[in-house]
Amino acid sequence: MTKEVEKQNEEQRKLQVTGGSTFILSLPKEWAIRNELKRGSSMVVREEDDGSLCVAPSKFVKKEKQDEAFIKASVNDNPDAIMRTAISAYLDGYNILHIKAPSQKVLSAKVRNHLKNFARHYLVGTEIVIDTPTELTLQVLLNYPELTVQNALSRMSIIASSMHKEALSALKKLDYTAAKSVIETDREVNRFGLYIVRLLKLAVSNPRIVKEIGLNSQRDCLGYRLIAKAVERTADHATKIAENTMCLKECVNGQFSEKISELSGLAISMFENAMDALFRRDFNLAENVIERISQVHKLEKETVLSMQNVKTEDAVHLRLAIESVRRTAEYASDISEVVLNLNVESVLG
Q1: Would you say residue 78 has pLDDT above 90?
Q2: Considering the entire predicted model, what is its pTM?
């Protein structure tokens, strides 16, 4: 809506006092007629976060969305398709998910086990409350203040940072067991990512819960969604480093090990600083992270050049590992850019 249109919809009205203590503000007659209002009509008045008042007829107030979702699961349905429907309902804010076979038919053991494993591993705060041959019911028992967006994001970032460090250690030592552990840890980051998306979607549709989930305003939702995605991708690249380590045949040479350690140290330092800047709302620290990206590109070239006497097969996987380290630094820069946008008012005159 342009400013010209906004001005056309504005109308100045004076506040009046009746009875010596009651403030009265009259409503536009045309608006009242258009909405079929009359004397005694019920109105809803709500104070917004910025101190303004929202006034609307009761019929305008949206009914609260049903808390329960019912998902039909036929015998021939793909378990992954049913799972995706359950995820969508979870992200949309439903607290109780009923997965049932139609006409009281039995759910296959494959579908039930698939959904139970997924719920345990990926849906934060969700418990299985009904498990029968014909129905599987999942319920979200976690309240918003118990795990806010920032708390969940902090846990995500700590896990992602640890994954990166462990993946680099596995690469240098050619430790397949440690590399496998990193790969398995990725689901921990993903489960917090899904939870954050759920909270942000709820906040966008219901401004009354913004404070409950730990944000200052609805305007922050997009920024936090971008940051959560960047943290997920950082963990994904730690997983890629571990996957490439699993493909190596020989230990890396000393020069390469030294260079990739230096590159990795810079990248993960940027990532941790970017997250600190977010939680501390530190504009200058975020700016410092962005300025260090040129060092990353320089170190990347030096690391590639250190790949001497490496077999072609291993060289491919090492090059991919270097790329993942660089991408970690670039995601740190992306996070910092969002932090700048969220806190730009702190440096404006």
Answers
A1: no
A2: 0.82
